[in-house]
Prior knowledge:
Chain A: InterPro entries: MetI-like, MetI-like_sf. By secondary structure, chain A is mostly helical. Chain A contains 11 helices and no strands.
Amino acid sequence: xTTSHSARRDYRGLVPPALLLLAWFAAGRLGWxxxxxxxxxxxxxxxAWHYLGSGELFRALAASLARDLGGFALGALxxxxxxxxxxxxxxxxRLLGPTFHTLKQISLFAWIPLLSIWLGYNDxxxxxxxxxxxxxxxxxxxxxxxxxxxxxxxxVARVHGFTARQRLTRLILPAAAxxxxxxxxxxxxxxWLATIGAEFLLxxxxxxxxxxxxxxxxxxxxxALVIFGMLAIxxxxxxxxxxxxxxxxxxxxxxxxxx
Amino acid sequence: MTSLxxxxxxxxxxxxxxxxxxxxxxxxxxxxxxxxxxxxxxLFALWQYAVRHQWLxxxxxxxxxxxxxxxxxxxxxxxxxxxxxxSLARVGWSVLLGGGAGLVLGAALGLSRTARAYxxxxxxxxAQFPVVGWVPLLIVFLGIDEALKVAAISLAVxxxxxxxxxxxxxxxxxxxxxxxxxYRFTVPQTLWRVVLPAAAxxxxxxxRQGVMQAWLTLVxxxxxxxxxxxxxxxxxxxxxxxxxxxxxxxxxxxxxGLALDLALRWAESRLASWRRGAx
Lengths: 259, 279
């Protein structure tokens, strides 16, 4: 089925982007479009060159990534913690589960106005928001993974006289690892979405980040900058996914089968 | 090990359970319900207590009574319903547009090897872009009116619907298609009687993810640029420092999210029974 992914590279996939680029280039050359509204590709390249050369892009990228990964780490740790707790203890699930499942229904961005009042327009509220965004998918997946640990596996652990700590680190976490990693992947995707969203919606004066760059570009009607920023944001999303999948494969190698 | 736990399980009790035993199950279920309510109640009590003792300013933590009052006022003046109707209309149109486009694209990717070769790499790449990142560019082209909202939300719906449609069709077991061929099904017949029922769970999964993404993106777009809708209600409350309005809007957003989730679950169970009938 997945022949297109096999060893020989299929170049037909390059056709749509090439056509798009060609049309974009031709449109600028032949004067079909208003160059302020749709700047020609070379203008976007010029902007890219300027931002790469001045180091502005790297500063923005570093600021955004620090926010993203910081928030993700906080949210993911909390999510794994709650997920394990809910999965291991029936009582915890009865006490906390309904509240958790209800709060989950509140659309992510709806937290932003409340956070902006409680924590202000600053990096702190952005990071908290990113953490919330990563928290739900990780907690949910961890919970499901831990629930999937079978009775038989627990019996073996008991026979071997595992302590509670050993049960956690040597039974529960490894057994639930595939689901936890799936949840972490989803959490990473949401964290990046939330990073950009937070940079748009919680603008702090003088703050830097890819989202801030794009917002400034829009305010100045610098469409080339908006397009470049969007491509950079998308590129980071793709790169984060790639890196994560590589890590995932390495982490799950002990299981023998690649899922 | 399983045999051990099996023999240790409850021994078969053939005799009818006595009265207390029959009451035990509902009582236990009621107990679980009550346990689930403990945390919200405790949080509510803490909220009330904090307000009573003025730990925080009213602009930062509105009293529950005020939230309740605002909810009533907004509801009876029809304002809340108007905002909600506008937001739901945006979601509805976007699910139709984005979902329709996703269905077509996903079906093309699933049914045609050529379409897959040309389009799948680009789609897989672009699908990893966060939707939110498109919005400033869409604002440049479309302004900040209705078109922006519908376009952004449609994009958010398009991705999961396409992915799941493609996956559902590619995952159809070959023997099913062969059976269709043996019966000399026409193309529409194959689509309607083999492909659709076989891919239905995946299609539905796509719809469900699409609706949830739509609801997420709606709130984002309305917070960023709008003059009406449930997200705008939050922006307005935020600007006036009336946190009660913000909380009312949050509760509404949560309630609608819950309602959408329940409705889709219900539809999924109906779908499962239709599917059994189809085969």
